[in-house]
Amino acid sequence: MGGLKKVLNFIDWTNEYVGRYASLIMLPMLVIMVLEVFMRYVLKSPTIWGTELTTFLFAGYTLLGAGYTHLKSAHVNMNALYGAMSPRTQAIFDLITWCGFFLYCSVLLLESSRFFWDTFSSGRTTGSDWNPILWPVLLTLPLGTLLLLLQGIAKLIRDIIYLATGQREEPAP
User: Fold this and answer.
1) How far apart are the first and last CA of the chain?
2) What whole-number distance in Å separates Cα of residue 89 and Cα of residue 155?
């Protein structure tokens, strides 16, 4: 059980670390957005890269933070129903819905990895006036999905342990 706990703690630590650093993406994104608004509406000379780069940064922020959000139980759920359930019923419900979660993440991981690889190997760009390469932002999709899937597996294991022993194994802080 000690080895399993180390693996679960490593998954938690990884998502905590990646999520906290991914949140820092908001700072340059905010600066670029303010600069773009200033350039567009005050100087009447918008950049050719500002909006596109902001979109790329937001994608990375969102996708790389998915595992962290799952770690903190901050994804949307039906709180009116879920919150009224006992912890044991919640764990059973999570086990049942985990099948859909696993299927979704598996397909998303497979397809986004293919999409990333096709884009990386072809050197595809956006085709805009700025025309940056696409693979760096597309890499965040399979990476973010993998982190989310790993955190989901960690939660699944904790739910199984809880149902088997009655003792809740909380994520490491």
Assistant:
1) 19
2) 15
Q: What share of the chain in percent tops pLDDT 70?
A: 98
**pTM for the full predicted model:** 0.91
103-124 pLDDT, tens digit each: 999 999 999 999 999 999 999 9
In a domain, 53, yes or no: yes
Convert the pLDDT of each residue in 34-72 to its tens digit: 999 999 999 999 999 999 999 999 999 999 999 999 999
CA dihedral 17, 22, 28, 34 (to 10 degrees): -130
User: Quick check: is 83 in a domain?
Assistant: yes
DSSP H stretches of helix in the chain: 2-23, 26-37, 50-64, 66-71, 79-82, 87-122, 135-165
Considering its fold, how many domains does the chain have in total?
A: 1
Structural domain including 65 reads 2-165
For the record, the structure tokens of 117 come out as 């690889």
Which residues fall within 8 angstroms of residue 23, CB to CB, at 6 or more apart? Answer: 61, 65
The answer to whether residues 28 and 61 touch, using CB atoms and an 8 Å cutoff, is no
Whether residue 173 lies inside any domain: the answer is: no
What value, to the nearest 5°, has the Cα angle with vertex 159 and ends 152 and 61?
25
Helix (H, G, I), strand (E, B) or coil at 44: coil
